[in-house]
User: Fold this.
Amino acid sequence: MDFGLSLLTLLHILIPIYWLGGDLGAFYGSRFMVDPARSVPERMMALKILNNIDMAPRTMLILAFPTGFGLAVAKGWIDLPASAAIAVWVLGLAWLALAWTVHLKHGPAGAAYKRVDIAVRYVVLAGLIGSGVAGLLGTIALPLFISLKLLALATC
Assistant:
């Protein structure tokens, strides 16, 4: 196994760990935000921390597909050229940049970015569900575990 494939495998394995850790941190932090015993400045600080912690799971959500797709192509589980994996990475990184732009731009300055991000999410959701179901039905050639992973990612 070459170094690049090993690194991609490690990244794909670490993604759910960072995803879950960020979600747990956000869940824990949300309790401080809604605690009426805390002062308004404390609750506002909790909100700020919560918003920043929440970017870890958002980032991992977006990176889950490019890493998995790259692995599936590299290991021959799906019969597509490496250029398809590169294209998915480019699109995934563009979406990641958009998500971070939405996070950093608040109010009217970020409204258009947020609408585009929501549209991308719906397109990705439809693609994940469509591909997963098509794989299960045998319409497209996908191993069972990849079809199930696509549906699991769509659920997330």
